Amino acid sequence: MKTIKIAGVPEHFNLPWHLCIENGEFEQVGIDLQWTDVPEGTGKMCQLLRDGETDIAVILTEGIVKDIIGGNPSSIVQVYVESPLIWGIHVAANSKYHSMSDLKNTKGAISRYGSGSHLMAYVNAQNQSRMISGWNTNNLQFEIVNTIDGAVEALANGKADYFMWERFMTQPLVDKGIFRRIAECPTPWPCFVIAVRNEFLEHNEQTLSLILAIINNTTIEFKDIPSIDRTLASKYYQKIDDIQEWLLLTKWSQKPIEEKVLNNIQNQLFDLKIIDKKVTFAEIVKAI
Known about the structure:
The protein has eleven helices and ten strands. By secondary structure, the protein is an alpha/beta fold. The longest helix has 17 residues, at 205-221.
């Protein structure tokens, strides 16, 4: 039995992995796939890859692209979720802010630098600058909060003014009157990819191919699993109507990332000054 370490956020996107593990599908081919939940998100997972503490990460596309360009010795091997991530922009329920124009020059809560909540704040600011005078990516301010719980605390005590996170995972906080959502900001690219440490990939390409084949067979059929909406709603504390909407919007992928898609991501990150150079397709993506 070969032990492989994998990391991902504790969110509904990753239920297919948990089903495969629970059903013993990896064990059947001699793989002990050990999953680690990372509530801190992409920035933390980038660090786990760099430190060799995980072999594989199911990770936000923009975050791992930035970190590979910044020296992370890892590669993208496949798109995991093709559809955009819909980021909700939230304030505390009793906040004085009620519109995007109110949030100009305020402080955003982020899980950590290099995370999706950090990078998407720049994408959102660029979007707003086209409509609201004075929005400027150079004026963005951040408070590191690590997790959703940290964001709840930071917004409640005024250390931060708004928080961007996947809108369905934050819906229970909106329903409870803890957060108020004032806008949404979808990613302009596929949201999740599968990234692998290059050292691991060099010695385990056949094993990785097996892992991808198993997860891809599951994601192809995931929406057809009987009562999957009820399973998701129960496991992630969601209303059934919200989960059904999310399932309609979400499209898993079983394919490599396309070069034109990667070029578009690099161009946007470069324009936002999130990366200071662009690299070749082969420096970021490895074919399996």
